Amino acid sequence: MKNKIQHSSIVTRWFAGIISNKKALAGSCIILFFVFIAIIGPFLIQSPTDFLGTPLSPPSFKHLFGTNGQGQDVFSQTISGARQTLFVGFSAGILVVLIGALIGGIAGYYGGQTDDILSLIINIFLVMPGLPLMVILASWLPPGPGTLLGVLVLTGWAWNARVIRSQMMTFRNRDFVSAAIISGEKNIRIIVVEIMPRMLSLLASSFIGASIYAIGAQVGLEFLGLGDISTVTWGTNLYWASNDLALLTESWWTFVPTGLSIAIVSFALTLINFGIDEVTNPRLISERLWRNKVPRNMITNGITPVLKKHE
Amino acid sequence: MSKSISYLIRRLGFYLVAAFAALTLNFIIPRMMPGDPASIIFARFRGKLKPEAIEAMRQSFGLTNDPLLVQYWSYLKGILGGNLGTSIAYFPEPVADIISSGLFWTIFLAGSSLIVAFSIGTLLGVFIAWNRTGRLDTLLPPTLAFLGAFPYFWLAMLSLYIFGFSLNWFPLGHAYGNEVTPGPNLSFILSVIYHATLPAFTMIFVSLGGWMLSMRNTMISTLGADYITFANAKGISSRLIMLRYAARNAILPNLTGFGMALGFILSGALLTEIIFSYPGQGYLLLQAVKSQDFPLMQGIFMTITFAVLAANWLVDIAILIFDPRTRK
Questions:
Q1: Which residues of B touch A248 (CB under 8 A)?
Q2: CB–CB contact B263 A126 (8 Å)
Q3: Chain B contact present for A181, CB below 8 A
Q4: In a 3-state reduction of DSSP, which class is residue B158?
């Protein structure tokens, strides 16, 4: 009973902390903005695939971000590209963390032969160089979002599994787990109820890290022409920009808006990760409390509060 | 000591199994695709392929009418004998020859950028974690995180555009100029360094932040450990604490990361090489994909995999030296 109270407070405190953290809040707002655009944006704009103006005309009131090499409106393309890119990116992020937590958690908790076998699988996937494997798989499979998602998850889950496994191993040797084992709790309960809540920040930051990876890798694959080049995504926008010789014709507007959007989304995700770290890392919390009370120049290096000797 | 050796042998065993799995995957992928792989490939060429090339591809894929296990066996025998098949795009050149020329450039470019980025990033991480009250720690991480958020190839394109096209400071591609003769002469070496500078710089630029942040974060937890407080209390000089007590322990996750980064960078170099037309593995791979040169694709995938496996084993050895706990 006492345990339960403690756990719910971990979770509530965690969410309250995220919202109160400036970096995490700013990141979340940006992400929500882009998700909102991805959902309703495509209904409000001109068709991104129609021929609307002189090819490669610079930004104007008629075409806010100018037109690309096929006379399509770059503003429309940037907005409607968000949908598939973000959908595939976040879906891959969720799948990667679920698979990583399942396999890494089991491997780290049980150890021994289970760990040997699972680690072997994790290692095999880790050492398969991701991008070449993605390129080869994507060149065999029919192009499309399903192929991208599958390829991203297949090449991305192992990293998370490894991180979660090593975190699980450190928890496995903590006293509270030993106590739970001695008091006769079941292994599944120990993993899900005792350990996982304490790994919440790791799981959340893994999800965010995996999404950043998935968005980047997906855009990269599509840039190489391995996606479905007839759909409008941020990756195919850049593929066409490069194909239409955007650099040689100095039409920067064909690739800058999309590149900036990707960068802002990734940066917002990174901000959330920073926020999670600041809120959940006990060392950073105690340090912040300590800093508020003690003048800056009196704090020694190192995190454990030790005052400098007066000389 | 003998325990360390048996640990290393066990790891070697792991990597051999992983290599075996990679070989098997390489065998399975073309056969898992819907339809018959041979007819897919042949259909894609629409009769443009010479009969010898088709025959060579059948041989290198083992795409005969034999049962799958027999095909697998002849495939393994071929690989172990160093026979990666014959390239289609560069017919009749053997895949192994093409790869060995590309591998040199990739290892040179990716390896040197990795080492520079790792050293500078790790040192910066130690430094800013140590001076956590300093201005650098509030400025550097967010700046580098923002730069790291841009898609790598996009930054590479932009820098090629600015420093290559507009300012004309760096060459637009290739590993060395036309005017030099390859060989151990000064003008060739200078030309190689000149051509590698911009691609290497973009790779260092985007990966620096990762090394720095991970080192900084581990270093922060390490600095909170009791033995650091104790060392402080004993009055050991802070330089010694920073390097010998804290950094030495905090570097372990970065070392593990180094092994994996080799994999990432060998594959990440793919985009660099494509954008800067640098004649390494990645550039070859894209050419192979474009010309549907499947033997070359598979050969490149396998070489990269083996290189990464070997690198990981070397990192295992390094960790054994640095972390006494693994020796138990």
A1: 165
A2: yes
A3: no
A4: helix
Into how many domains does chain A fold?
1
Alpha-carbon gap: A277 to the closest alpha carbon of chain B (Å): 10
**Tokens found for residue B195:** 């051509």
CB contact under 8 A, B274 and A224: yes
pTM of the model: 0.77
Q: Hey, is the C-beta of A124 within 8 angstroms of any chain B C-beta?
A: yes
Q: Which residues of chain A have pLDDT under 70?
A: 1-11, 13-14, 49, 51-53, 55-56, 69, 71, 246-248, 281-311
Contact B132, B220 (CB under 8 A): yes
CB contact under 8 A, A124 and B300: no
Q: Do B223 and A301 touch (CB under 8 A)?
A: yes
Q: Which pair of structure tokens corresponds to residue B219?
A: 């270093």
Interface check B161 vs A, CB under 8 A = yes
Rounded to whole angstroms, how far apart are CA atoms B18 and B31?
20
How many residue pairs bridge chain A and chain B with CB atoms within 8 Å of each other?
161
Sole residue written with tokens 């999800």: A207
CA atoms within 13 A on the CB side of B291: 16
CATH code of the domain in which A236 resides = 1.10.3720.10
* Residue B86, φ and ψ in degrees, nearest 5: -115, 135
**Which token pair is A196?**
């996982």
Question: Which domain covers residue A61, as residue numbers?
Answer: 2-307
- Preceding amide of B92 cis, omega within 30: yes
Q: Is the ipTM, as predicted for this complex, more than 0.90?
A: no
